[in-house]
Amino acid sequence: MILKNVRRTVGLQLAAPLDAKPNVVRASGPVDPVLAAVVVALVGFGVVMVYSASAVQATVQYHDPQFFLKRQAAYAVAALAALWVSSRIDYHRLYKLTYPLLALVGVLLLLCVIGFGHSGGGAARWLSIGPVHVQPAEMAKVSLVIWLAYSLAKKADRIKTFTVGFLPHLIVAGVYMLLCLKQPDFGSAVVLLMLTFTMLFIAGAKVGYILGASIVGGAFGAAAIRFREYRYERYLAWLHMDEHRQDLAYQPFQSVMSFGSGGPTGLGIGRGLQTLYLPEAHTDFVAAIIGEELGFLGVAALCGAYLLLVARGVRAALRAPDDFGSFLAFGLSTMFGVQALVNLAVALAVLPTKGLTLPFVSFGGSSLLMNAIAAGVLLNISHQSGEPTMDATPPAPEVDVSLESAMGPAAEEAL
Predict the structure, then answer these.
(1) 158-166 long-range CB contacts below 8 Å, 24 or more apart?
(2) What are phi and psi of 86, to 5 degrees?
(3) Residue 280, pLDDT score
């Protein structure tokens, strides 16, 4: 559903301004319990599956089968705390933080590119702050959604123009994408582009502009794959997986084998054998272990959980008290849905390897914390959602007693 730049109305049909305060009646309601339950359940499920997928690797590498479990459990506690805190903070406070967040994340991405990034898996995607590793690309997704929601709400009346309503948003997203590609992090760049186009479409930007930019973006993406040797080799290995199942396509091939060996109901949690063969099974390919240990039904239930998460986020967007809240909820819901969809597609070898985590489930502190904060913002928007209660019958006008007494009987009869 596209928002045709229709401002939410408050009181006597006055458009809610960008700096509108939360409605008292709406803000008195509870947060969406279904949305909160889904997020908490996914976080808990992630801790269990990370342990099941990582016990073998943790034993071999660190001589402690619970090495990754302890870390993920700590991340989960911090994420639930971040979820609660962010759900208690009025999302309207993000107005003043929009540009500082945008600039801060841009600087962090730039630091990764110019040599301060911590390398892992052939990419400098992390910044080391003592014992903590921060991944700015995860912050970039949330930061871009906040800025797009702010800008689209501010420019709602001119969203169909190219120079004001379309081009500035594409430029800012393009800068973030370029910094991600330089790390390199092709998957995050794709997610940022999809978020931008989705929010522009929802805001009512001209479809022709979006299609034209999509064609240009597709051509640029194809060039980024073709003229980067490692990407092109990975792409060819994905196309001919049988020929490369012992080298470049080893990981996606083993991932597909995991899904196939799970059958309808799976082998049971902790009983999967692909953890012996699938590298880094607890990170980007944790869905493959879910498919092996919980089977088709477990993967279907996981997909249903993400679908419910997105649906409740869209529900909060449609019931938000202002345009900023609507765009913000739509953007965050899209972020969850796109990341889950791409991760599952990669695990099933429908798409080449992208390096994206499965939201709330994959191992990793940066991804889990940022997703929890984003979910907390969604909960706060749902807290202020709903239709305002207004008295349909206007109060009777007050009558001046002195005027009434001065009027004669004939005048009263005429009235």
Answers:
(1) 159/5, 159/200, 159/203, 159/204, 159/205, 160/204, 160/205, 160/206, 162/206, 162/209, 165/203, 165/205, 166/200, 166/205, 166/206, 166/209, 166/213
(2) -65, -30
(3) 83
Q: How many CB atoms lie within 10 A of CB 142?
A: 20
| DSSP string for residues in 283-320 | TTTHHHHHHHHHHHHHHHHHHHHHHHHHHHHHHHHHT-
pTM of the predicted model over 0.70: yes
Q: How far is residue 238 CA from its own chain's centroid?
A: 27
One-letter amino acid at 131 equals P
Amino acid code (one letter) for 108: L
Give whole-number Cα distances, 368 to 75, 285, 336, in Å: 7, 16, 12
Q: What one-letter code names the amino acid at 372?
A: A
* Residue indicated by tokens 């202002």: 322
pLDDT digits (tens, 9 = 90+) for 82-93: 999 999 999 999
DSSP 8-class letter at 82: H
CB 320 within 8 A of CB 312: no
Q: What is each CA distance from 144 to 136, 175, 194, 235, 311, in whole angstroms? A: 12, 11, 12, 28, 21
**Omega prior to 352 cis, within 30 of 0:** no
Question: What is the predicted pLDDT for the residue at 400?
Answer: 45
pLDDT of residue 287: 96
**b/e sequence 99-135, b meaning 16+ C-beta within 10 Å:** eebbeebbebbeebbeeebeeeeebbbbbeeeeeebb
At 2 the pLDDT is: 47
Among the listed residues 384, 395, 258, 397, the one whose alpha carbon sits nearest the alpha carbon of residue 325: 384
Find the DSSP H helices in 112-247.
136-154, 162-165, 167-181, 186-203, 207-226, 229-239
194-234 pLDDT, tens digit per residue, is: 999 999 999 999 999 999 999 999 999 899 888 888 889 88
**Strand 14-15 to 117-120 pairing:** unpaired
Closest CA to 209 of 146, 148, 164: 164
Q: For the chain, which residues score pLDDT lower than 70?
A: 1-29, 119-123, 130-131, 386-415
What per-residue confidence (pLDDT) applies to 122? 61
What separation in angstroms does the CA of 98 have from each of 43, 142, 178, 179, 415?
27, 11, 20, 19, 58
Token output for 345: 């597609």
pLDDT attached to residue 393: 37
Please state, as a whole number, how many other Cβ atoms lie within 10 Å of the Cβ of residue 208: 10
